[in-house]
Amino acid sequence: MKAIFEELLKTKKNFVFIGEAGSGKSEIAMNFAMAFAEILYGQARAMLPNISPRAVHFFDMDQTKPLFRSRDVREQLEQAGVVFHFDEQFMDAPTMVGGVREHLADPGSIVILDVGGNHQGARMIGGFAPFLNRGETANYFVINPYRPWSREVLGIDGTLSEILKVSHIQKVDILSNPNVGADTTAEEAATGDARLREMIGEYVEVGPICVREQLAKEIEQNTGCAVIPLRLYLKGIL
């Protein structure tokens, strides 16, 4: 699976994760960050000591809910060499993390934006649209078909339309993240993914399936689809 991330780094440097609240954006974003850190810093260690790798920057931009935020496992990402950015909130007042624009523009920075759920969270990135619509940026719309507003085409289309309107993102790639929690079975994951592809496959291409790493091999063999194995860092919904 490392090959998927290595291939991405050949053409992309910025990675944005949007979707319905509870779709699993944070879990997937953290796995991308950890994979990139392993690839880039591992390569650097194999080279001369004075050669610095590109830095992986993770921005926790979730201002929409108090649970299951990537900032809760900040230390794990930092231990892997990921530079973690977030701003403390006071009550429910929204805050903007600093340094986003600079790092999106910096060719030496690999940037991951973990965006808050639905269009409320996506408003935070509207001002960065010129960077998000460049070829060097991958914008991922994460869909968990088991979530309330992602169980039918109209719900998915409504959520995506609202997010695109406020974020000004012009193109997204779809990531399938079918799960009912940390104890999701391979059958549940495969069934959810098949349902998602049946619902929207006529309108848009669905990318890899994201499943917890213990299920990855079985899902890949049974579905024939590309799989991104996830190590679970957050409790509850993936």
Structure explained in plain terms:
The structure is a single chain. The chain is α/β, with parallel strands linked by helices. The chain has a single domain (2-230), classed as 3-Layer(aba) Sandwich (Rossmann fold), CATH 3.40.50. Helix content is 38%, strand content 19%. It has helices at residues 2-11, 25-46, 74-79, 100-105, 118-122, 129-132, 153-167, 186-200, 216-223, and strands at 14-19, 55-61, 83-85, 109-115, 137-143, 173-176, 206-212, 227-230. Strands 3-2-4-1-5-6-7-8 form an eight-stranded parallel sheet, with helices on both faces. Helix 7 (153-167) links the parallel strand 5 and strand 6. Helix 8 crosses helix 9. The two termini are 19 Å apart.
Fold blueprint:
Elements: H1 2-11, E1 14-19, H2 25-46, E2 55-61, H3 74-79, E3 83-85, H4 100-105, E4 109-115, H5 118-122, H6 129-132, E5 137-143, H7 153-167, E6 173-176, H8 186-200, E7 206-212, H9 216-223, E8 227-230
Parallel strand pairs: 1-4, 1-5, 2-3, 2-4, 5-6, 6-7, 7-8
Produce a short descriptive summary.
The protein is of the alpha/beta class and 238 residues long. The protein is 38% helix and 19% strand. The protein has one domain (2-230): 3-Layer(aba) Sandwich (Rossmann fold).
Q: Report the top-level CATH class.
A: Alpha Beta
End-to-end Cα distance = 19 Å
Taking strands numbered 1, 2, ... along the chain, how are they ordered across the largest sheet?
3-2-4-1-5-6-7-8
Q: Biggest β-sheet: count, sense, barrel?
A: 8 strands, parallel
**Per the principal axes of the C-alpha atoms, what is the gross shape?**
globular
Question: How many individual domains?
Answer: 1
CATH topology: Rossmann fold
Q: What fraction of the residues are assigned to beta strands by DSSP?
A: 15-25%
Mean pLDDT figure: 88
Structural class: alpha/beta
Q: What is the number of E strands?
A: 8
Tell me roughly what share of residues is in helical segments.
25-40%
Number of helices: 9
Query: Radius of gyration over alpha carbons?
Result: 17 Å
CATH architecture: 3-Layer(aba) Sandwich
Contiguous uncertain segments of 5+ residues:
none
What is the chain-wise order of helices and strands? HEHEHEHEHHEHEHEHE
